């Protein structure tokens, strides 16, 4: 049998190998046929087999994972032939497949460079720009993994000829991007000797596209060669390109200059960079509006980067320039349009909106630039304008950066509370969604006031905050953007830290209950339920608490709609998460168990999934009656459930409950232990006192009987006394012989009690299959938590103690009987 199984496995394995080989052969054969069809039909256009050929190329990574050697031998050469005449789709697919093979590491990097690198390099200069860029991205990823020697011989050496002015435009553009990548792969002296001459040549290329492309590669080249070479080689080239006749070249030079600002020392910044930046700013409004958008985007970084070399006059000039950009395209400060200005074109309007949006993005950086202490004097008016900008993208950006502004202002955060209300009441839900993301943190900063604890009164002095919050929620509720509504409700859980309990109760809590009852979106209902539980958690007024609990039970737990009853179970789950176990057991345990009789199967199924969490809230012996109710409900479900799906989940839940341990109420157990110890101590003292008295009486009796027997001369009386003394001894022995007997009875009672729980469950009605093992009552001590758990052995403590007390009572009765008999004998002797 074993040999046959082995043979079967070998046959299956060989069959799989055969299938793989056949697949490789079929792919190679198809590509070979397609190549010849392509060569024959290339004048007539693309072949109908392009789709199938593209599919084969797309499956190249799969073939490489299954059998790399055969794929490299039979499939890859055919792909190489087909790519010469392939269309754009197959070229793009091949570039992606080659990159995937590299990332999968199906072959070693040496094998990859030997087999794939030449194909990549051949297709770099494809006539289609998209295809060329796709192969270039693959090559740049390959360069990261290739060893230096391979890069030097296969890429760098051919690059010298490819970058010459005599080559095509596409070839020179590709050379620019490759050099930016190679600068980080070699030592600085190699870069200086072999790469930088090519860089200078391409920076002075006759085509502005090449100059622009090379200018954007100066940043990675500068990072690769270090500060000294950047200062002597890269910076002069940037200065020259910044004065180029092409606007795209000047824009690239400006952005590269800003990004390399940290690499220049203070002298270079003061003597070279600052004059260039001032020139850009002056020309941007007059003759070079193309740079205006980029300038507004980088202005914050530029101002803070040059902060140390600004004179007070220059500092003020750049600040005024920023203010001018913030209102670009809007009405003049006097509120009237300038009639001398021509009507702006649509393109200009879009450009101006982008500029103001960039100004909003840079607003936190400008606060740092002017110092937060000067915010109200220097920037508050601009902040007000940006928050009230007529365009949504500008207000959206301000809403995103509002939290950063609040953090920077620290104790002066109260100055922007009105703008917070404005953005909360914004007509665009996009703005509201952007603001709500950090709403709890913003409100916390405002009530704490940064380091100023006295700002809480300033927050409470704004009467519009609570109406703005309620309006924002209602507007989100009436929209179709339920994710924004869900997010808002989740963030509103922070309100107990912000406003009073009464304000939450009258303005927000009942609204959450209404959302649970009326909204049709499940995530929104759950968010409202959790937030309501948080509000209930922080409400300390018992009347309000009881009212909300009653409404939850009546309107959700006992609601007519099964959907509401499902939400009641969700709410109970949040209550178990946020409240104490005793709170849940007191108010919600029994209402949850009532849903075992629910007529809707989905409700019963959800309840079954929740039962393990419900059981985990119990503590023994405090909640012993609730545990009995839980077991009773499970019995009913097992015996009476008719739905197959519900019954399956019930059985699964029973097994899970069976494995669970119940927490012990340590304090209650300690009290009971002390009471039991005190009771047993009193009983033992009484038994000891009785035994002492009985022993004393027995000794007196024996003495008197001895005296009377010695004084007697009658043989008959002697026989009677002997009989009486034997009777006394037998009675005293019988009191001692009772204890072993009762100890055996005690053992029997323990054994019967230990099996009673299982037998009571196994003896239920017909078809009732409940299997609770004693694990659910097992005593364990966990070293981490230190909490003990209740077990079957500990459940027998009470019965065992009660039996011991009965045993002691029986012993006491026997001793009292023997004492009475001794007294009677004594009287008869006398």
TrEMBL record:
Compositional bias (Polar residues): 806-815
Xref: Gene3D superfamilies: Leucine-rich Repeat Variant (1.25.10.10)
GO MF assignments: protein phosphatase regulator activity
Compositional bias of kind Low complexity: 703-718
Region (Disordered): 670-735, 799-830
HEAT repeats: 195-232, 234-272
Location in or out of the cell: Cytoplasm
Main location: cytoplasm
Cellular component GO terms, alphabetical: cytosol; protein serine/threonine phosphatase complex
PROSITE patterns registered for this protein in UniProt: HEAT_REPEAT
Name recorded for this polypeptide: Serine/threonine-protein phosphatase 4 regulatory subunit 4
Species name: Meleagris gallopavo (Wild turkey)
């Amino acid at each position: 049998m074993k040999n046959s199984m082995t043979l079967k496995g070998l046959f299956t394995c060989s069959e799989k190998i055969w299938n793989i080989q056949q697949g490789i052969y079929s792919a190679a054969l198809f590509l070979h046929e397609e190549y010849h069809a392509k060569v024959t039909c290339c004048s007539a256009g693309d072949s109908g087999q392009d789709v199938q050929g593209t599919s084969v190329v797309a499956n190249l990574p799969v073939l490489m994972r299954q059998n790399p050697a055969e794929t490299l031998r039979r499939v890859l050469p055919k792909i190489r032939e087909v790519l010469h005449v392939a269309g754009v789709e197959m070229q793009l697919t091949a570039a992606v497949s080659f990159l995937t093979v590299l990332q999968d590491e199906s072959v070693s990097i040496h094998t990859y460079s030997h087999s794939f690198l030449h194909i990549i390099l051949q297709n770099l200069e494809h006539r289609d720009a998209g295809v060329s860029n796709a192969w270039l991205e693959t090559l740049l990823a390959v360069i990261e993994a290739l060893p230096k020697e391979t890069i030097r011989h296969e890429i760098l050496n051919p690059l010298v000829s490819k970058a010459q002015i005599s080559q095509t435009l596409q070839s020179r553009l590709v050379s620019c991007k490759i050099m930016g990548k190679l600068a980080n792969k070699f030592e600085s002296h190699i870069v200086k000797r072999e790469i930088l001459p090519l860089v200078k040549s391409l920076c002075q290329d006759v085509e502005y596209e090449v100059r622009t492309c090379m200018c954007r590669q100066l940043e990675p080249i500068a990072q690769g060669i270090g500060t000294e070479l950047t200062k002597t080689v890269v910076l002069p080239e940037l200065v020259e390109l910044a004065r180029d006749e092409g606007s795209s070249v000047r824009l690239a030079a400006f952005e590269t200059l800003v990004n390399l600002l940290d690499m220049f020392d203070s002298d270079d910044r003061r003597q070279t960079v600052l004059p260039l930046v001032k020139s850009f700013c002056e020309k941007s409004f007059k003759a070079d509006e193309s740079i205006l958008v980029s300038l507004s985007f980088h202005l914050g970084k530029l101002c803070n980067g040059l902060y140390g070399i600004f004179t007070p006059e220059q500092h003020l000039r750049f600040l005024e320039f920023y203010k001018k950009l913030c209102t670009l395209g809007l009405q003049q400060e006097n509120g009237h349009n300038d009639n001398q200005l021509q009507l702006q074109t649509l393109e200009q309007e879009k450009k101006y909106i982008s500029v103001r949006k960039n100004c909003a993005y840079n607003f936190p950086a400008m606060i740092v630039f002017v110092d937060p202490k000067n915010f109200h004097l220097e920037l508050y008016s601009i902040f007000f304008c940006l928050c009230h900008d007529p365009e949504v993208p500008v207000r959206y950006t301000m809403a995103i950066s509002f939290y950063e502004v609040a953090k920077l202002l620290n104790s002066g955060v109260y100055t922007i509370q009105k703008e917070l209300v404005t953005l909360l009441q914004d007509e665009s839900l996009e703005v509201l969604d952007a603001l709500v993301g950090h709403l709890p943190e913003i409100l916390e900063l405002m009530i704490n006031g940064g380091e100023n604890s006295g700002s809480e009164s300033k927050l409470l002095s704004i009467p519009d905050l609570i109406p703005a919050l309620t309006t924002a929620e209602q507007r989100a509720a009436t929209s179709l953007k339920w994710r924004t509504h869900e997010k808002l409700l989740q963030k509103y859980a922070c309100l107990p830290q912000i406003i009073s309990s009464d304000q939450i109760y009258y303005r927000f809590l009942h609204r959450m209950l209404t959302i649970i009852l009326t909204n049709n979106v499940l995530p929104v209902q759950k968010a409202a339920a959790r937030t309501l539980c948080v509000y209930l958690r922080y409400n300390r007024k018992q009347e309000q608490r009881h009212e909300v609990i009653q409404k939850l039970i009546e309107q959700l737990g006992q609601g007519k709609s099964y959907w509401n009853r499902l939400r009641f179970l969700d709410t109970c789950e949040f209550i178990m998460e946020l409240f104490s176990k005793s709170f849940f057991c007191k108010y919600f345990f029994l209402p949850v168990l009532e849903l075992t009789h629910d007529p809707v199967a989905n409700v019963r199924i959800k309840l079954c999934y929740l039962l393990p969490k419900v059981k985990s809230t119990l503590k023994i012996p405090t909640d012993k009656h609730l545990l009995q109710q839980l077991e009773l409900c499970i019995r009913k479900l097992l015996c009476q459930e008719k739905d197959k799906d519900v019954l399956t989940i019930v059985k699964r839940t029973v097994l899970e409950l069976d494995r669970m341990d119940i927490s012990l109420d340590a304090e209650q157990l300690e009290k009971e232990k002390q009471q039991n110890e005190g009771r047993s101590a009193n009983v033992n003292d009484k038994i000891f006192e009785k035994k002492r008295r009985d022993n004393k009486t027995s000794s007196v009796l024996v003495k008197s009987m001895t005296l009377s027997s010695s004084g007697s001369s009658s043989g008959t009386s002697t026989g009677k006394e002997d009989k009486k003394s034997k009777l006394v001894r037998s009675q005293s022995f019988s009191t001692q012989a009772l204890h072993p007997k009762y100890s055996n009875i005690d053992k029997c009672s323990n054994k019967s009690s230990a099996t009673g729980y299982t037998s009571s469950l196994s003896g239920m009605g017909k078809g009732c299959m409940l299997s609770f093992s004693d694990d659910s009552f097992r005593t364990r001590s966990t070293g981490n938590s230190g909490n003990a758990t209740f077990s079957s052995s500990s459940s027998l403590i009470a019965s065992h103690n009660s039996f011991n007390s009965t045993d002691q009572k029986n012993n006491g009765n026997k001793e009292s009987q023997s004492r009475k008999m001794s007294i009677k004998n004594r009287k008869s002797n006398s």
